[in-house]
Write a structure and sequence with these properties.
It contains three helices and no strands. The protein is an all-alpha fold and 109 residues long. It has one domain. The longest helix has 39 residues.
Length: 109
Amino acid sequence: MTTQDKIKKAGQEVIDLLIEKNESYGDSALKPANVFANGSAVDNLCARIDDKLMRIKTQGFRGYGEDNIKDLIGYLILLKIAVREEEESRVEEDFKLKNWQEDILKIEL
């Protein structure tokens, strides 16, 4: 198996894990319920990443029988998506505000 094949296989394992967890938990990573925690998707994912890194620090890569590396990569992918969505939302809000300001300036008093 070539290195490229190994990369594809490892990447597919993370994708499969993310899809499986998304089916089990819904879209909670990117659309948090905010029942107990009250943060954005980015904030909550950063907290999950911190927790995972602390587990790796204290238990090693195989603590609690989980594949911590795969989980961490998955959280980082979700964080990348959340950051992108947050930036797109900010651009959309800025565009709406600019249009609103232009409309206000067109009103004759």
